[in-house]
């Protein structure tokens, strides 16, 4: 069973937001829908869930056009809030599960179980507005998965989370996928989610500009970067086949031009200073994005 | 699934409403208000025959004291005083409500306030008693005279005394309907706006048809209105069960109110719910609902001012104003059955049209966030 998005087009007031998007989400996989703000990620998710009717194209599930009954087996967590703040946690979960077609008793069991797993069991009688931001976010995740969906779609789930919360969320996601579930999440923080998804779809300007297994995309790219643990002065590399030099607290990352010999560049650096640790690395997600679009993710959003 | 979803939306509305203190206060306030209006006049006005004390002084040869003792409403306690001073003192001190001084053929009433029913009553008794005594002395049977007077007295027939009562009752019924409709209209608009702004609607629209979302809310919040109206009616029904007679017309008026209230509430709630989907932030709801409530306010005041005239009849044919004017016109008996039937039909048609249009506006508007939309934005395409 898989989710497929085919040739989806969507325009708002004459502005094209999605321009023929294709996407496939196989079972047991985590797909990252990545791109700058305004790329059309949220619009695509709304279309997947039938909240918006696309101008053209279709959403398919299990090989045929997805209908309401199929969508009841999916769960959606929108980017912001998406909860009745005055409702009690347990009531909210049960109500949502029943809307998905789960009967009342089963819904209560699912809710208890999920709240237990999310560490919210002792807050189940509290109104959501009385919870901290982090807890409310977990309830939001719970709302998306209380009916035990096969496909889970999370819009910017990592935005604003602290590292512990990211870790926690990742564990939940891995559980879901390990059980044969499908998972799609979106993010505009490309480097943050680099280790989380096995398949990515880079989206920009309403088009999927790069799609596939992250590992394959990286090794297929001719771009490499030389990482060294010293601060590199770009002038040392005059005449060398290199691109930008990025300096961080832990050292420098020198983009190599296709076909460049990493050893030669390393020697040029070593003639100025001692290098104790170095490596040749495949491109990062933001470097892949830049290669595909010709601009940086940070510049693309505006 | 639409039906099941709608039921679930209604269930949630009611359950959450039951948790809101403000709503309970509103319902209890209206219930108590209704109790006060129905039962207080009873308690205050009709507490059985009153009591009065009358002091009699002087030579009571004709038996004035005895005649006063026979009066049963108010029950008069007759005391006797020594002289004029004692009577004046007693009246001044409040020991007696009234004093009677008798001396031979003449008599004087000592009073605090000459314009009370008690003064008229006692003066009548005194005059009657002494007149009877004199007629008796002249050889005429006082009973014959009394019969002659009674036959000559004109019968008193009040002209539509109930009119005032009926108008007052109709005003009160209208006020209750008006308050409930205004409160619930604002409530549904802001509830929809909140759902849209905090993206609950997004989660829900993935599983619930927009129709179910809008109409579930309308029905749920409408039920709150009907229950509150029911609470307001309880004291009236209890009063009726105890055998009270209402000002004629109020019973029919209340029944009509129920019909037009439900229709009007449905109309206003659907429109307000659809309008609520146009805004992106809750703060913008007020500006959107005001025109709607203004119509209601205008209808209310227009009905109060000239609801029983021809202009009131016009209001009965406009679905947005008929929920105010028709209950009033039925209450005071100003309209005709034809008018009411046509009005009801127009209201039903208006609700049906609003339901169709409202669900289109809601469906298109609720997913478009970012800025406040105009009706043209959503209906234009």
Question: What's this model, at a glance?
Answer:
The complex is a heterodimer of chains A (302) and B (381). Chain A is α/β, with parallel strands linked by helices and 302 residues long.
Can you give a write-up of this model?
The complex is a heterodimer of chains A (302) and B (381). Chain A folds into two domains: 217 residues, P-loop containing nucleotide triphosphate hydrolases (Rossmann fold), CATH 3.40.50; 60 residues, 2-Layer Sandwich (Alpha-Beta Plaits), CATH 3.30.70. In chain A, 31% of the residues lie in helices and 28% in strands. Chain A has ten helices and 14 strands. In chain A, strand 7, helix 6 and strand 8 form a beta-alpha-beta unit. The mean pLDDT of chain A is 87. Chain B has two domains: 259 residues, no CATH class; 102 residues, 3-Layer(aba) Sandwich (D-Maltodextrin-Binding Protein, domain 2), CATH 3.40.190. Chain B has a four-stranded mixed beta sheet, with helices on both faces. The model of chain B has no long low-confidence stretch (mean pLDDT 83). The chains are: A alpha/beta (302), B alpha/beta (381). At the A-B interface, strand 6 and helix 3 of A face helix 1 and helix 8 of B.
Keywords:
heterodimer; A: about 300 residues; alpha/beta; Rossmann fold; Alpha-Beta Plaits; six-stranded mixed β-sheet; B: about 375 residues; D-Maltodextrin-Binding Protein, domain 2; 2 domains; four-stranded mixed β-sheet; about 70% helix; about 5% strand
Layout of secondary structure:
The complex is a heterodimer of chains A (302) and B (381).
Chain A lengths: L1 E11 L2 E12 L3 E5 L6 H8 L7 E6 L2 E2 L2 H4 L2 E4 L11 H11 L4 H14 L15 H13 L5 E4 L8 H16 L3 E6 L11 E6 L2 E7 H7 L3 E5 L13 E7 L2 E6 L5 H9 L7 E4 L3 H9 L3 H4 L2
Parallel strand pairs in A: 3-8, 3-9, 6-7, 7-8
Antiparallel strand pairs in A: 1-2, 1-4, 4-5, 9-10, 11-13, 11-14, 12-13
Helix pairs in contact in A: 3-4
Chain B lengths: L1 H18 L1 H25 L5 E8 L5 H7 L4 E6 L3 H10 L4 E6 L2 E6 L5 H21 L4 H11 L9 H36 L2 H6 L4 H32 L8 H27 L8 H22 L3 H8 L4 H11 L4 H29 L9 H5 L2
Parallel strand pairs in B: 1-2, 1-3
Antiparallel strand pairs in B: 3-4
Helix pairs in contact in B: 1-9, 2-9, 7-9, 7-10, 7-11, 7-13, 9-10, 9-14, 10-11, 10-13, 10-14, 11-12, 11-13, 12-13
